[in-house]
């Protein structure tokens, strides 16, 4: 027998937690299903990451977020969201992955790797950090290639290629360089990304200008070998020695899960899911989207600070 829950929230990140707190305030019973640890995507961020936003813009449920500096770090964010979840006794099942959502006549059946649930309403707040945008080139599956940068010490004295020119790539390039790595950036565009954190952008541009970090602009990686890598530049193919590749190529939502659920996606490259921006309800009655997943491939549109409001919008519509 499927367990009866009025509201299932899929995703235990900051926005999923915000939805749970909004449900609590309205007296609506709910359950969060999270396939990893609490705020799993934040846990997978680089160890030394500093947020672009100030701490008050990352707050949820009206609970103050106090950090040592104006812009909090990853450890501070993990501590904050953990404290929120524990102090508010949020109902959450960790390490339980939602595998399917099917209509059952009176609502939906959610099947996970552990249980089955029946719910009238579903909120999908699954983010986008689990599926990297692949390069689709030979050698991408070699052990030396990663789409998740964690700790710069690992790359000390090594020859490292960093692909990309936005925040993740710039942080990886600067941090590994300062730990003694020989860093080469491969950048498809002709400049460092415009959305790079304003206090970091001059740093990376100066390191490139002085050639402390080598950068190939208007270039792409075409082949990765055990000890080398091929870069297609405007002047032709360049082969350089290489120990590790950090492919900071971005991530995408789990479109296959949305499609299997029955949510309509746009036919263009963005693959925007269908939803009502006033209620966040999708083309499926009672199924809502919250957070970054709303943007499709445009993962730079929604953040914690501007999608927190999705929680009150959704719960307000449900309780009506």
Automatic annotation (TrEMBL):
Which Pfam families does the record associate with it?
Answer: Pyr_redox_3
Q: Which PROSITE patterns match?
A: PROKAR_LIPOPROTEIN (PS51257)
GO-annotated molecular function: oxidoreductase activity
Q: Which SUPFAM superfamilies match?
A: FAD/NAD(P)-binding domain
Coiled-coil stretches: none
The source's superkingdom equals Bacteria
Task: Write out the entry's keywords from A to Z.
Answer: Flavoprotein, Oxidoreductase
Q: Which residues cross the membrane?
A: none
Keyword flag Oxidoreductase? yes
Write down the InterPro entries for this protein, in alphabetical order. Bdr (IPR023856), FAD/NAD-bd_sf (IPR036188), Ferredoxin-NADP_redctase_2 (IPR050097)
- Protein name (record): YpdA family putative bacillithiol disulfide reductase
